[in-house]
Every structure is written in structure tokens, then in C-alpha cells.
Amino acid sequence: MFRVELAVHPRPGVKDPQAEAVQESLARLGHRAVTVDAVGRLLSLTIDCATADEAERITSDLCDQLLVNPSLETYSVSVGEVA
Amino acid sequence: MSNPRAAVIVFPGSNGDRDLLEVLRTAGFDSFPHPSGQPLPDDIALAGLPGGFSYGDYWRAGMLASQESAVRGLAGLVGRGGLVIGVCNGFQILVEAGLLPGALSYNDPAGFRHRWVTVRCTLETDSPWFRNVPNGATLRLPIAHGEGSYFHPGGFDAVASHAPLLYEENPNGSVGDVAALLDDTGRVLGIMPHPERASDLDLGSADGLRLFEGAYRAVTRDPSPVAGKKKASSLQPPASSKKKATSLQPPVSSKKPVDTLPSATGVQR
Questions:
Q1: Prediction ipTM score
Q2: pTM of the full predicted structure?
Q3: Distance between CA atoms of residues B162 and A62, nearest Å
């Protein structure tokens, strides 16, 4: 059993108006040193499989089939075994 | 003879379905609501995907709805010569389903926009949806969306031949001012403004009705000329539907945008 954290990010170069809007709000609070690089989404999964590689492959399939729009987004995956 | 049937697919979170039902009825169709989780009937000439917030726009607008049974049947409908229109959230669903290329994302600048806009027809097309809207015509339509910014990784050049309507003043950062998109067949139309909400002068504009009346004329093979509409000379490209399409086929002329509909033969209004 593996715990997977899937993070979906805006593809570099694609306009990210959410990040700009959050940036403006943080700046209004006085956080001038902070730059919001991107706003994305996080999906936490538990996958019943034998190896971390398999968990990563299954997650990759989910992204290709549904969860990631390759025109706009990229993603990263972290996998850990559930004790 | 009965009128051609038009299914309006109702998703959890749709809110423009009754407007779409009404305008289709006004245009001459026998329109009816159809639950998104049910397979599409075989005897329809048209399917409409309404505006709204299907599945609350969870994860990505239109993504969850794109997996519904009725949406999965749209390619078959188009293959049989049927017509499809997706308005606003319906446009997002068509893109997520791979029936139209590219992506729709957050408005730029960010924020929900709701106001009247002017869009201009910029294509000479035989698409059934544009039988009553000639190249160069302008339409006054309302918008109401937060994720209407059209994007294609190939830029505007990649979709210019399939973009029938461009914003006069871009409200959302769409590449190339794209307000609507046709598929290779010309039978699938995704449109971000709301033509169904501009179908009566009492609403401020009846321009949107022209799209639906054009569809009706195509479905019923009404040959009568329309004032201001010159005969289209070249049509949209042919068929090539693929999941998450990222490119479009080069234009190929076709004079028979609707040729195999099961229920529309000989119907006159």
C-alpha cells in the first residue's frame, strides 16, 4: 500500500492569473519579500499495489487519462509506503 | 412530421439548461432535458451542453462532466451527422472530452466577467451553426464566466481556421480573441458567450437565435436563402477526433454538413 501525493502545476510559460491574484493579496498584507510562483492543485491518493514504481506508474496513467491537461499543466509525484 | 429532436444534457450543477431548451424550441426543435449519466438516445439530431458549474467545477472545469455517459456518446452522434453545441461550461466540457482542441483556463486578468460583448464572425464556413451568420457579421451576446480564457499550445495560428467568432474586445485573455471554436466537421460548436441568453429582443438581443435557426435549417435541409447570407464557398475541415487533440486538420471543403441524420428528413418549419 502506498501513499501518493500528486501536485499539478501550471506549465511554465502559461499565464497564471491565480498566482498573480494571490501575489497581490499577499503584497497588500505587507509580504513584499514573497513571490507566488504558481497556484496548483494537490491530490492525495492511497494505492493498493506491490511497489513504489507501480504506484508511480498508476498515478502517471491517471494524469494522462484525466487529471492533467497537458496543454496547460505539468505534474510531480511523491510516493511513500504506508506502514 | 415531427420536429427534429434535441437533447439538452443536464449535469449536476448545470444552470443554463432551461435557457437552452427554450431557444432550441424557439428555433423549431423538439427539445428535452436529458440526464448526463444516461446514454444519449439514437434518434436525436442535436445535443446541447448548457452553461453552469457542472460538478462544482471541481479539480478542473468540465473535467468530471466529460466522463459522463451522455458526453461519451457525442462522438457517435457527430459521426451520424448530428450537431453539438456546448455553451460556456458546455464548451469547457467539450474541450475536456477531446471533442475540441486546446484548453480553457482562468480569465486573465483573473476574475468572473459578466457583461455584454460583441463578437465578429471571421470565417467563411459551411458549418450548420453559421448558415444564418455570414462572415463579417457581428453578434451581441452576454458572457458570464471565470474560466473562459482559451489557450492552445500552438497559438492562434493553430486554430484560426476553426475559430468562427472573435471578441471585438477580449474580456478574458483568450489567445487570438477566440470566443468560439468548431471541430473539423463544423458540426461541433463550443462557444463561451451565451447565445441562448440573447434569443429575444426583450432580453436585449436576439442575435444568438441566429445560430440555432441556422442549425435547424441545416437539420431540416431548408434551402431557402437568408438575407445577408451569401453562399459559403469553403468549409471546415473533415473529421479527426482524438483525445486531448492539440492540432486541427487543414480545411477541406464540404457542401453537406448534415447528411445522415435519422430524424430530420423532410421536416419543414
A1: 0.86
A2: 0.85
A3: 30
